[in-house]
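I am still getting used to backbone structure tokens and would like to learn alongside you. Would you supply a protein for us yourself, any chain you care to pick? Start from the sequence, derive the backbone structure tokens from it, and show both lines together. Go ahead whenever you are ready, and we will take it from there.
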Amino acid sequence: MSRPDWQLAVVVGITSSVVTACLFTGVGNVSAKASGPTLESLNARLHQLESKPNNRVRAPFVVVDAQDQPIVTISASGANHLLTMGTLGSGTALQLERSAEHAMLVAQSGSSDTQARLGVRQGRGPRLEVYTKENSTIVGNGTAGRHGIFVRDGGGGPGKPPAKSLGELAVTVGSSGAVLRLSDKEGKPVLSAGSNAAEGGRGQLGLSAPGKPTGLFLFTGVDGGGEMQVMGGDGKPAVELSGVMRHVLLSNRAGQPAAVMRLGQGGSGSGGNFTVVDPAGNNVVSAGALSGGGGALCAIHPKKGNKCFP
């Protein structure tokens, strides 16, 4: 090989080695830059996201089943936060409702006429409400500070006019006992029974015709004896039977005593006595047993004096 040929071969060889080295070096650099995140780094990042305590899902949103049908709906209506399964007012549904003033669970079957509501409201306390087309029942705090069981007619459900009262067993907050009240289908009172706080907590029963004043009172006296008052159609006393006084009292239409049958000696004797009273309250006829035996009848006249037999 001549000298020029040998020199050319050396140059070509050196050049080829340099180019090869440069290519391999460049490929190495490109590979290092394009490798991206490793599997280990992705796992570390996922673990970091899952461990954060402030992960949130912003409402409203719907959870659906495999057929894309709603299961649970999370929503808000003003200040009310709602979790709903189904649709209230249509079919079977369940709803949990909460605000700053109340919390309530609503269960429904069919329509809004058939619902049960369990909840608590600020200033009123817990309460269970059961509604059907025919009637409604409330257990808990009612109106006028009463707490107990309240039965209403078919009105008064959610979004409906107030219902008529058919009956209740309730205690007025701060009073001494419970009272049972029953009404006819029109909501007119017919019976009241329970403890009368105004009379020392005594037990009493009142009966009346629908929409009329009380016609009959049964109650206990201050010493535990029984008493009964029969009222006239005008609501004024007509007849009184007292176990405490041991007397039967007949009143006139003005509600004033007209005649009384009782024990003699003003009620303290062992014999019986019957006395008739004039409108002014004066005794005009008195008949009864005498303390020494026998009996007497006396007629009393303001001008003619007394006449007694024998």
